[in-house]
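Quick illustration, no need to memorize.
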Amino acid sequence: MNPMSAFQPYYPHYDPLHSDLPGQGMDYAPSYWRYHAGEPPEDDGPVSADMDVDVVLIGGGFTGLATALFLAREYGIKATVLEANQIGWGCTSRNGGQGHLAWGRLSRSQWVKKWGADTARRLHANTLEGFEVFQSMAEDPEIDCEPQNHGNLLVAHSPQALKGLEAESRLCHDVLGYKTRVLDRDTVLNEYIGDQESVGALLEPVGIAVQPLKLAYGYARLARKLGARIHTASPVQNWTTEGGIHHLQTPGGVVRARAVGIATAGYTSPNLHKLTAYRNMPIMANSVWTRTLTDEEIDACGFRSTMIVTDTRKLRYYYRFLPEKRLQIGTRSAISGADAQNPKHLKVVHDAIARKFPALAGIETPWFSHGWMDISHDMMPRIVQPDASQQIFYAQGYSGNGVAFSAYASKKLAALIAGDKIPESDLPIFSSPLPAHPLRPIRRMGQRALYKYFQVLDTVR
């Protein structure tokens, strides 16, 4: 492992649409998770010479690390992970630690509308199966990622939004056989969380909160224990294929492999490979963590649970009360990397804290970080071999719900790489590559306009 002094300074303006590489050996973003997780586990350092390996996994976040673990544990394949910066450097260390029962961004009613009730039921069964994979990892004592409070609270920010949650709850029960509860405002405030914007909520029984960087560190330790190698500060600078062998150029040497798994999510450069070019739309989210709260503040805010919470805005807020007596809260952020540090984005979160929890208006937030999510064009993730003639695989497009899904995706990605069959291969997450994003040159302009429209919608109560 590189000593901390050897890290390159963190660069907050990185933008995957305009930069080929996310850095080399760069320090972590200044998130609370990094502060709280302690020192990173030992890794194998940068690539220092040409090497021949069986399988390469590009990206050392949740998916790359867990795929290496599953390949070693279930197939005896000792993969080599190539990470540009540090273990868990990207979205893995910058999310809210919310393990949802969600595959992508679409609701279950949208599944029914798009694919019909039968496919929706199968997708729902798949989510339950996949969540068990995540839960087994999160609750593994060797991983030690501080799993908390089973369940997930979706808070309605308006009466209209509450009606939508009531309809979704009925569909879950009647079509999927999945029992959820609709809570009124008083129940939310008196039993769960004192969010003053709440007019009610949908309570799901499934969901686990974790310390996400500790989860990644646990994956890394177990993967290396089983023989995987993790090379940090080793970005892939060029990729060619000759005679079915992939030649991955890193600053320290060429890594040659028969198969490659891509696990770079929102940090995927359009120039990495043509099979992943413009298949994700990188969207920035930011997150803050408050100072330690006093008992009086905790009581005034009605923090009675550490359950994961999200509100129903289009530009939603995700938040939770941490066991260490801090509030973590995040939302969408800047459009481009160049604007990432603009104080107005921090103010958006501070204003939300004041609205939701008036007792915390003006509170200090010592940790503020932002990072890129991989939003797919159809809001659904994929675990695929996009071209049957090439030994290239990817699991991407998680669309902001990768904490839990990445564990399941990694298990299935490992199966594909090992040549195993996936019984559910006709489900939408397995049956096609990620669709390309249209109108690439102007999509950031479109995103800016869409955000303004969403801001208007989110004020309608």
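The longest strand covers residues 253-262.
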